[in-house]
Specification:
By secondary structure, the chain is α+β, with helices and mostly antiparallel strands. About 45% of the residues lie in helices and about 15% in strands.
Length: about 130
């Protein structure tokens, strides 16, 4: 079963359970809200997938009441900022919680340097 089919099936189950547990008006609103969040999730996936560099990475997306939690690992701060900008500009996103990770590039971190104290009393004796 495809991921979309599973999503539709789960949404149908949620709709049935919600309609049994809540008054009809509240149940209908809850289903409408969840559908809006699913549409927003699809729009964010489409925006990230349409970007030449960002499409190559996997993301963890969760939208609840218009609040997007965006997670995953990106190789640079520039790409992180681009992903956040695309996500926040997406219709239906009211707020973005940034859970993206940019690993520290070990080639950019200098090895510690030990600087010797050059005071005269510690200098090597003249021979």
């Amino acid at each position: 079963m495809s991921e979309q089919a599973v999503g539709r099936w789960l949404l149908a189950v949620v709709a049935v359970v919600t309609s049994l547990l809540l008054p009809p008006a509240v149940a209908a609103q809850a289903v409408d809200d969840r559908l809006a969040d699913l549409r927003t999730t699809a729009r964010v996936e489409q925006a990230l997938g349409g970007h030449d560099e960002l499409r190559a990475f996997d993301y963890a997306l969760r939208v609840e009441a218009g609040v997007l939690t965006l997670g995953g690992a990106l190789p640079s701060e520039v790409l992180r900022q681009e992903a956040l900008a695309l996500a926040s500009a997406t219709r239906g996103v009211g707020q973005v919680i940034d859970s993206l990770i940019v690993p520290v590039d070990s080639t950019l971190v200098a090895d510690p340097v030990v600087v010797a104290d050059a005071s005269p009393d510690l200098a090597a004796p003249d021979t």
